[in-house]
Write a structure and sequence with these properties.
NADH Oxidase; 3 domains; alpha+beta; 5-stranded mixed sheet; binds flavin mononucleotide
Length: 372
Amino acid sequence: MPLDRRRFVRVMMAGGTALAAVPLLESCCGAGVAGEEARDPPADPLPGLDRGRTDILFLASLAPSSHNIQPWFVRIRDADHWVVGADVNRRLSAVDPQNRELMLSIGAFTENIVLAASASGYEAEIEVLASRAFDADLLEVRLWAAQPAGYPLQRLSDRRTLRGGYSNAELKADDVSALLEPLADRALFIPPSSPQAAYLKEAAVESFRAQTWRDAAQAELAEWIRFDDNAVFAHRDGLTLASMEISGIAACFVRLFADDVMSKNFREQGIKKTARLAGQGGGWFVVSSGDDSVAGLIETGRRWQRMNLLLRERGIAAHPMSQMLEEEPWRGELAGQLGLTGVPQFVLRVGYVEDYPGPVSPRRPVSWFVRR
Ligand SMILES: Cc1cc2nc3c(=O)[nH]c(=O)nc-3n(C[C@H](O)[C@H](O)[C@H](O)COP(=O)(O)O)c2cc1C
């Protein structure tokens, strides 16, 4: 229900006390509930695909992507032969000019296809087609009948990015080794008390600050923020207040008074929040690839997603803080500062969380990204 500024003031007055106004305000503001409803499985199979194959594509779409752009399309050649590509209208040219993050997101999407297919009685064979990160067709999927594997699909539907409420307890060694196992030798754990962690904390805040004041990057972010439920349902992508962990009265306030992403206030609030978050957590993971090739980035995205899917059952959250891989000088100096041999692709703040709410980030219906 839309609420204009004048009505907001009237509601406050009529409520008498701030306490009495709280439930009313939350209901007026919608409290950002749309996300949970805007990620539902398709009611019917898509034409030419059965229920099982349609569900594989739905589960694939629950993969993470930067700004929740969901950059994928899937062309159905036949029921068992698909081509996954990058939607050129969903690029982030200001913060991801080389499509590096786009390839990582496609990797996470691909891993979800492989895992969902394996649980449904298919082996999904993947062949990377693209040699350039700007090619439209990126990879081919072929489904072959196989024994269903026992992979718990709930991991795919329950995964989410959670950024707040981290404990400062250092991650235990057995959690670190279980989470980094899918990444083999491409990941590094940085304990919270180390000098490298101090560097990452400062780099997270300063690179965020630099990006926030870079107008092209901020204007691009503005295009992907969905402030109200109408926008969430119309687009089914992007960052919602709920997915940015802004809810209740705070969400109401942002919708009414602070929805100008280019304003000084909006930028300063973002920097303040990032500084608070960067100081929380039980360490950092840095994920690298051997090189920046398309195949290397897709493989890194796949392995990273396998790690993501293990987080919830260990009560651990991971927050990608990507601005330091997007902005100079941090992008150029990070590998040297941390003594990495590979190319850093993700910097993740990690920590134990007591409260692990369900996913709220919207997803486009399968029919919106399937092409014939
Ligand atoms: C390559 C990549 C980079 C990301 N960078 C950030 C980041 O810098 N900050 C952040 O808060 N989330 C980041 N994310 C997380 C996305 O915002 C998140 O996946 C998306 O909004 C969908 O939400 P979900 O993960 O809860 O489904 C990144 C995700 C990917 C795949």
